[in-house]
Amino acid sequence: MDGGRGAAIHSPERICYRAVGSTGVREGGGNSVKRVVPPANDPGLHLLMRLRDEAHRFAIKFHRKRRGKSAQRSVLDGIPGLGKKRRVILLRHFGSVGAVRSASLDRLKAVKGLPSPVAEAIFEKLH
Predict the structure, then answer these.
(1) Phi-psi region for residue 48, left (φ > 0), alpha (ψ -120 to 50) or beta?
(2) What is the CA radius of gyration of the chain?
(3) CA of 8: how far to CAs of 3, 11, 27, 120, in Å?
(4) Is the pLDDT of residue 1 over 50?
(5) What number of CA atoms fall less than 13 Å from residue 5's CA on the CB side?
(6) Helix (H, G, I), strand (E, B) or coil at 35
(7) Contacts of 114 (CB under 8 A, 6+ apart)
(8) Position 120 pLDDT exceeds 70
(9) b (16+ CB within 10 A) / e for 79-88
């Protein structure tokens, strides 16, 4: 069932461009956008549609990859002396990065397995 809305209606593909005269200046001044609606079976239109779709696919893939990398980063990355094992100790002790951020320097220094210079580096980075 279509929910009473009927079949989807698609607008025809349009090609939009700005008209430029022989002098290199836009004709007619202002906003002189020209629109062309080529026939649906035009081979040139199909080539442009494939180019557009490929550009969109490439951009979407890039943004997903970039977003994925940033989701894996932590504010704790890059702190000297804080490797994977110490990070696990720290997160198990406090429960979350937010709790680490709100911890005082004395509370950070009290974590077993976390040297004082590393606790100070963490405090400096987060405050």
Answers:
(1) alpha
(2) 29
(3) 12, 10, 37, 61
(4) no
(5) 5
(6) strand
(7) 86, 89, 90, 108, 122
(8) yes
(9) beebeeebbe
Is the CB of residue 15 less than 8 Å from the CB of residue 35?
yes
More confident position, 70 or 73? 73
Helix (H) / strand (E) containing 122: helix 116-126
Length of the chain: 127
Max distance between CA atoms of the chain, in angstroms, equals: 76
Three-state DSSP class for 25? coil
Residues 6 or more apart whose CB falls under 8 angstroms from that of 122 comprise 76, 79, 82, 90, 100, 108, 114
Q: Residue with structure tokens 């893939």?
A: 61
